[in-house]
């Protein structure tokens, strides 16, 4: 039997109706009462427009104070929110609309043309609404007053080692347990305010909205990350928490100069892959308490986070598994590197329209080790995934696009270390005889088909692509193969 709880926004309306739920740097503020009333009005309009419980409703929108009301409206209807990455190309969005069996799409005005273009390739009739001009109804009928923790609430796309995007299904329970576990680790204070500068279509950004409605905590919403804006809001808006990735923290520190963060700021939650120790020490010097965290879309955000009491003595660690979660490394013992495996009520039950997950532990595909005290250190990825500025980039997806170029005979893609982004995509190409190819032409071809962060930033010419006995590309050997060819040429 499914566990139900009172609708969390109804509960905050009852307990903290007059308190701030959302605000932005322009001075706009929304109380929990305002948010509840707007969400219910939007939900009523959705019902009047034929949206029903279980329908898959997609959102393609930038961060905006209106977007949370739509996402909460979905929970009043009982539909499922499919969150689309705004940086994807129309072609990539079309695939996700079809794969997720979307029946309705809400697009922000700045992304309207992209939404219309993506819809052209849809294999079903998808109704498109402009988020900013959507009508509201005050005929509040048949709205859900309770939440079933077993029901699917959101779907967010991620990719496996094959590069095929998959929709991770999150239940209300996944989001609930993620927020509760984080609160038990970091603590919940009366004056907490979380700055949201990550995209809401990412699990890291969406999880902050969940914390807000579950904790009754205000969120300071920034449309797009800007180091100067974020630093200023820490002071002026008395922000206490920020979720970020390494490149964002580095830019905040550079912009801060020699200044320190104020004493009310108590948490920089840092994810997106291993963090350089030098960056962590720079943050400490400026009174920025960094808590490194480990998680992924499949775990509804963080599943392991360094606790405040251990932050200074375990620099570089992602801590231990949060309350109600379990984590182990598939290795011979402590200190040995192996694949990180997790389980817990925040871990997804599986992917939409894919075979169910059957193993007790979810295999993350990431490599790490536990020290003698059981603290996790993430060291690498078991698969070939590239993490560039906190975004996951999958080589097979880029290779598939590049293989369509008439100049290319063979191609392999891997990550190249970069001081600003952590890694950048690098393409290794065998050019067809009689053809010519330069980086500018390659990038122009990719920009029409891929999100900007997936476009290769380096181009290397090779005579052959290293492969194994099964003819699979050995991406980790691309640079060594290049060096071997250069050595042979020089000799």
Automatic annotation (TrEMBL):
Residues 10-352 form the AMP-dependent synthetase/ligase domain. This is 2-succinylbenzoate--CoA ligase. Its EC number is 6.2.1.26. InterPro entries: AMP-bd_C, AMP-bd_C_sf, AMP-binding_CS, AMP-dep_synth/lig_dom, ANL_N_sf, ATP-dep_AMP-bd_enzyme, MenE. It comes from the Bacteria. GO terms for biological process: menaquinone biosynthetic process. The keyword Nucleotide-binding applies. GO terms for molecular function: ATP binding; o-succinylbenzoate-CoA ligase activity. Keywords: ATP-binding, Ligase, Menaquinone biosynthesis, Nucleotide-binding. It catalyses: 2-succinylbenzoate + ATP + CoA = 2-succinylbenzoyl-CoA + AMP + diphosphate. Converts 2-succinylbenzoate (OSB) to 2-succinylbenzoyl-CoA (OSB-CoA). Pfam families: AMP-binding, AMP-binding_C. Belongs to the ATP-dependent AMP-binding enzyme family. MenE subfamily. The keyword Disulfide bond does not apply. Residues 397-472 form the AMP-binding enzyme C-terminal domain. Pathway: Quinol/quinone metabolism; 1,4-dihydroxy-2-naphthoate biosynthesis; 1,4-dihydroxy-2-naphthoate from chorismate: step 5/7; Quinol/quinone metabolism; menaquinone biosynthesis. It is an enzyme of class 6 (ligase).
């Amino acid at each position: 039997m499914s566990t139900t709880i009172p609708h969390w926004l109804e509960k905050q309306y009852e307990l903290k109706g007059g308190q701030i739920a959302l605000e932005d740097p322009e001075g706009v503020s929304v109380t929990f009462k305002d948010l509840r009333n707007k969400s219910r009005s939007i939900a009523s309009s959705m019902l009047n427009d034929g949206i029903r419980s279980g329908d898959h409703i997609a959102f393609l929108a930038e961060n905006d104070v209106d977007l949370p009301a739509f996402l909460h409206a979905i929970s009043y209807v009982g539909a499922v929110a499919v969150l689309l990455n705004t940086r994807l190309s129309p072609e990539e969005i079309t695939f996700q609309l079809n794969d997720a069996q979307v029946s309705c799409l809400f697009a922000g005005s700045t992304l309207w043309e992209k939404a219309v273009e993506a819809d052209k390739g849809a294999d079903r009739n998808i109704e498109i609404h402009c988020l900013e001009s959507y009508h509201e109804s005050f005929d509040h009928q048949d709205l859900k007053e309770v939440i079933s923790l077993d029901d699917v609430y959101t779907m967010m796309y991620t990719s496996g080692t094959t590069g095929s995007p998959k929709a991770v299904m999150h239940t209300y329970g996944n989001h609930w347990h993620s927020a509760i576990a984080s609160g038990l680790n970091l603590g919940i204070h009366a004056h907490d305010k979380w700055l949201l500068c990550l995209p809401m279509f990412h699990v890291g950004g969406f999880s902050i909205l969940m914390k807000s409605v579950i904790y009754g905590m205000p969120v300071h919403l920034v449309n797009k990350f800007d180091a100067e804006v974020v630093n200023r809001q820490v002071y002026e808006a008395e922000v206490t928490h920020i979720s970020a990735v390494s490149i964002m923290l580095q830019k905040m520190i550079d912009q801060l100069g020699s200044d320190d963060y104020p004493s009310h700021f108590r948490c920089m939650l840092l994810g997106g892959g291993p963090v350089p120790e030098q960056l962590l020490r720079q943050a400490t010097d400026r009174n920025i308490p960094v808590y490194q965290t480990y998680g992924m879309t499949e775990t509804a955000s963080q599943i392991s986070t360094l606790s405040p009491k251990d932050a200074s003595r375990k620099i570089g660690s992602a801590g231990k598994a949060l309350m109600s979660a379990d984590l182990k490394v598939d290795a011979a013992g402590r200190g040995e590197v192996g694949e990180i495996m997790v389980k817990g009520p925040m871990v997804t039950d599986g992917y939409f329209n894919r075979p169910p997950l059957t193993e007790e532990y979810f295999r993350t595909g990431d490599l790490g080790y536990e020290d003698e005290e059981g603290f996790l250190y993430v060291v690498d990825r078991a698969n070939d995934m590239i993490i560039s500025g906190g975004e996951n980039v999958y080589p097979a997806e880029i290779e598939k696009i590049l293989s369509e170029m008439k100049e290319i005979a063979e191609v392999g893609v891997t990550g190249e270390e970069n001081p600003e982004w952590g890694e950048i995509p690098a393409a290794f190409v065998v050019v067809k005889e009689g053809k010519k190819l330069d980086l500018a032409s390659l990038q122009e071809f990719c920009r029409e088909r891929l999100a900007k962060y997936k476009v290769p930033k380096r181009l290397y010419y090779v005579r052959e692509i290293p492969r194994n006995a099964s003819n699979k590309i050995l991406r980790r050997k691309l640079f060594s193969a290049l060096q071997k060819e250069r050595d042979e040429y020089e000799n």
